[in-house]
Write a structure and sequence with these properties.
The complex is a heterodimer.
Chain A: H1 24-65, E1 71-72, H2 78-81, E2 83-84, H3 88-95, H4 97-117, H5 119-130, H6 135-145, H7 152-163, H8 169-176, H9 188-216, H10 220-228, H11 233-258, H12 265-271, H13 277-280, H14 283-293, H15 297-326
Chain B: H1 2-12, H2 14-19, H3 23-54, H4 58-62, H5 76-82, H6 85-117, H7 124-136, H8 141-150, H9 158-161, H10 168-181, H11 184-192, H12 197-205, H13 210-226, H14 229-234, H15 243-252, H16 263-309
Helix pairs in contact in B: 3-16, 5-16, 6-10, 6-13, 6-15, 10-13, 10-16, 13-16, 15-16
The chains are: A mainly alpha, B mainly alpha.
Chain lengths: 332, 310
């Protein structure tokens, strides 16, 4: 690269300096910039050191502690002095028949969550956007938004109570039609449906708010023009609203897929029981049980590391694909 | 274009255009309203059912007679809750965690987001990248547990306050707010007046950032009130348990409570236990529900601020 003019590596954005020339002159300039910044902001550097220490201790050191996935961890020796075993933990994991079930369960559950919880908030937002700003819209929005703030423990308790074979209202209603009581939570096949649809119940209203904001940002002139051109409501939704919220939808989808493998431990663990374990045991719950209940730290760290890496790869792949298809990604 | 518009307006008039919507459009609107009504019912009915059950008599609940209105109105379950030491302790603990956690989290979030928002702060891009990376790749449960153990937080109240104190998403929201709503001229004025970095933050930036502080405080309060994972992993001492863990033990694990003397009393206890679950759900969600009007407004704002930068 020449010392004087090099093209910008990426398009400059508002918070970034325009491309700087490389080479020694560039390094000198950076140094003086850093010194100037220190003179101006030394108090802020002290201020920022506390949260930075937090990130180092609680986020980055744990990343380093993942070395125990390649070791036979002994609490006495600590993570650094423990004996190396290479890939033995991973071999043990991959050859364990449980592993395939775990992976299948985790993947199917997450895939189902993304599949259901991506389109529904969009539909909800589009519907809310159609009906104008009356009390009805406000009520629906307020009510659908509320479950997001109920804790996981409470939501799972509600599921258990509502679906209870003896006193739950669902079985009471089924009994009216002569259906014998069903223990839904004891059915492995029902687990995913319960998990996913209760999730939609809880988060659709919250997610819709983001799309509503995007819809509000659409230039009204577009709608006016479409109306004058004789577009029906459905056509306006299809050709004005949908393209208008597309960028938001892409970001939400990337984030959704990116979080796929990081699917919540909290809810799956609470919904688990011995009867539905065949489908409800997912990687995060397995990590918890292996590591903290059976105290096999190395194994649990190996499973966790595997999960994090798969998750990161997924995110990068989806981001790449989204960029290719729509020209937009998480990092423009 | 404008002439077309005005001629169209003249022909139909602004009021008429609303009335004379094509039949198809009116039909669509009706279908949309009906669908939203169904959605409303789906979300609301389970909640009403829970509240109605919590206010019904144990016998009615156990016979499955409660639908969406209390049957044989009774407050017995609520009275039992108010006399249960375990639940009260959990409530008290959760209040402490929510209050202390919010103060710590908001302080730390501002402490990192504010410098990151200053354009002249050298190293901000590197720092931001390092923060974002923790969103994409996490150390994982076990290594984090080892760190918490090593720094001696295990089985102390701090274990719930420190290890998850800063949310990267919240940092992004705060940074975006500072960057967009504090004009550079103010910084220049503060500098000319000889204000130091901290003084500028305290006397200029924070007074202008009350909406942001409200958003952050609400987000962290709700998080602290609702989470149970950290407590499950890091706490052994029942005296430190937050409400959510107590709830889990009672609601989901069915831990048996104090034995009753005779059979009739025992029957009643079992029946009461079921109503108790409904009442507990209501009581534990009450603080967040009371804050809900504020939450709804501020969370929406937070979502918008975050959405600007995506």
């Amino acid at each position: 690269m020449s010392a004087t003019t090099s093209p910008p590596l990426r398009s400059p954005s508002a918070n970034e300096d325009p491309a700087r020339p490389a080479g020694p002159a560039h390094r000198r300039r950076r140094w003086s910039e850093a010194r100037k910044s220190w003179r101006l902001h030394w108090q802020l550097y002290l201020l920022v050191s506390v949260p930075v220490a937090y990130f180092i201790v609680f986020k980055y050191i744990p990343m380093a502690f993942n070395v125990i996935a390649f070791k036979d961890y002994s609490p006495v020796l600590g993570p650094w002095a423990s004996e190396w075993v290479g890939l033995e933990n991973f071999e043990r994991l991959f050859s364990n028949p449980v592993f395939v079930d775990l992976l299948t369960n985790t993947f199917l559950l997450s895939f189902y969550v993304v599949l259901a919880s991506f389109p529904i908030p969009i539909l909800l937002a589009l519907a809310l956007n159609e009906i104008g700003n009356g009390w009805f819209k406000r009520t629906v929005q307020m009510v659908t938004y509320a479950p997001y703030f109920i804790s996981t423990v409470v939501v799972v308790s509600m599921i258990i109570l509502v679906l209870s074979p003896r006193i739950g209202i669902v079985n009471q209603v089924l009994a009216l039609f002569g259906v014998a009581p069903v223990d839904f939570l004891g059915e492995p096949d029902a687990f995913r449906h319960i998990y996913v649809w209760s999730d939609v119940w809880q988060t659709a209203g919250y997610a819709a708010v983001i799309y509503l904001a995007a819809l509000a940002g659409i230039d009204p002139a577009l709608h006016e023009a479409a109306k004058i051109d004789g577009a029906s409501r459905l056509q306006r939704i299809r050709y004005v609203d949908l393209p208008g919220i597309m960028p938001t939808a892409v970001i939400m989808l990337i984030l959704g897929v990116g979080n796929m493998m990081a699917i919540g431990f909290e809810k799956a663990y609470l919904l688990q029981n011995n009867l539905n374990l065949a489908q409800s045991e997912i990687i995060p719950t397995y990590v918890y049980k292996t590591g903290l209940i059976n105290a096999d730290f190395s194994m649990a760290a190996a499973v966790g590391l595997f999960n994090s890496v798969v998750n990161l790869c997924l995110l990068l792949v989806v981001n790449f694909a989204a960029k290719r298809v729509t020209g937009r990604g998480l990092w423009r | 274009m404008t002439t077309m518009l005005t001629s169209k307006l003249r022909r139909t008039g602004p009021a008429a255009s609303k009335v004379r919507e094509p039949l198809g459009d009116r039909l669509v609107l009706i279908v949309v309203r009906l669908m939203l009504l169904v959605v409303l019912a789906i979300v609301l009915l389970p909640l009403i059912y829970i509240v109605a059950s919590s206010l019904s008599s144990p016998a009615a609940v156990n016979a499955g007679r409660v639908r969406f209105w209390p049957v044989e109105f009774s407050l017995e379950a609520y009275q039992t809750i108010l006399n249960n030491a375990e639940i009260l302790q959990g409530y008290y603990n959760s209040l402490i965690y929510a209050a202390a956690g919010t103060v710590i989290s908001v302080t730390l979030t501002v402490a990192i987001a504010y410098p990151l928002s200053r354009k002249s702060f050298y190293g901000r891009n590197v720092l931001m990248t390092l923060l974002i990376f923790t969103m994409l790749f996490s150390g994982g449960l076990i290594p984090t547990y080892m760190v918490v153990q090593d720094v001696g937080l295990l089985d102390t109240r701090w274990a719930l306050l420190i290890p998850n104190a800063i949310g990267v998403w919240q940092v992004i929201i705060a940074r975006t707010f500072f960057a967009n709503s504090i004009p550079d001229e103010l910084y220049e004025a503060a500098m000319l007046d000889g204000a130091s970095g901290m003084r500028t933050l305290r006397s200029v930036v924070l007074p202008l950032s009350k909406p942001l502080l409200a958003v952050l405080a609400l987000m962290y309060t709700v998080y602290q009130w609702n989470t149970y994972f950290d407590a499950l992993v890091y706490l052994k001492d029942p005296d430190l348990f937050p409400l959510q863990i107590v709830l889990r033990n009672i609601l989901i694990l069915n831990t048996p409570r104090t034995g009753a003397v005779d059979l009739a009393q025992q029957m009643h206890q079992i029946q009461l236990a079921n109503v108790l679950r409904y009442a507990l759900i209501v009581v534990s969600s009450l603080p967040v529900l009371m804050m809900y009007p504020f939450i709804a407004r501020h969370f929406t704002k937070g979502a918008m601020v975050g959405a600007v930068k995506g």
